[in-house]
Amino acid sequence: MLIVDCNLQVTRTQKGREIASMKPTTSRSGCPIASTLDLVGDRWTLVILRDLINGKRRFSEFLTSPERITTNVLTDRLGQMERAGLITRTAYQARPPRFEYRLTAKGEGLLPVIQSMCRWAEVNLPGTWQAPDAFMALNPGAVPAVPRSGES
Length: 152
Prior knowledge:
Helix content is 38%, strand content 18%. The protein is built from 7 helices and 4 strands. The strands form 2 sheets. It has a two-stranded antiparallel ribbon. A two-stranded antiparallel sheet has the order 3-4.
């Protein structure tokens, strides 16, 4: 029997209405594939990771991607990715609050997975773009991740 533990989160809108949403707090199983998909298996997380690997850092930069993610979905996914430890968020402006996002070592560790998906798509999905050679040549550790202490 599979039990998924969920927390009920209530969010208050500006007009005072309440919206409830279910957020899984555990993986659906111990399977490494299912567990990974629980973390990055939606339609946007890997695209955002791709953009981070390619140097995008700010909210407005993610909105320029050809997939055209909406602002509310981007906000939600960036929050989920931060809570999962894939990215960090650092304020670069106080008013209005604005943030830069960077990969953590955990997020950077997904680079080979994304590169493998690119290779697979190039062979099996006619009409997909070919990933740039520079992207395919990157190795974990060479991606601009969160600065180490003392770096900026």
